Sequence to fold (141 residues):
Amino acid sequence: MAIRLGHDGDDFAETHEINVTPFIDVILVLLIIFMIAAPLATVDVPVDLPATTVERQPRPDKPVFLTIKADRTLAIGDDPVAPEMLASTLDTVSKGNRDERIFLRADRAVTYGDVMTVMNTLRAAGYLKVALVGLEDREAK
Fold:
């Protein structure tokens, strides 16, 4: 609050002006801090993800299980499949129904890149409904 001292009258007149310069300075500093901190929050950090405790979904009568074994070989059900024959074998098993959900199981030793390669093959073949199968963690409940 500022007071104008003058000899204009008997009363002191108050000037009601807010100095916003410090406020703008603080906002600019905060903006710079957030601009620097935001990209750092998206850096890949090793995380031990928790196990799922969601309720089990009902399984179809005849689910199609695609398995990636530890030696990187593929199997549909119990039958081994060559990677180049995956699309045609899935067409045979699903009777051409590309809306059928494919349950993808992978051994723990299989790398993420190998799983993504198989998922890309499924997507290229037109199978977009893929469910990842894992073990249920009973201790987390």
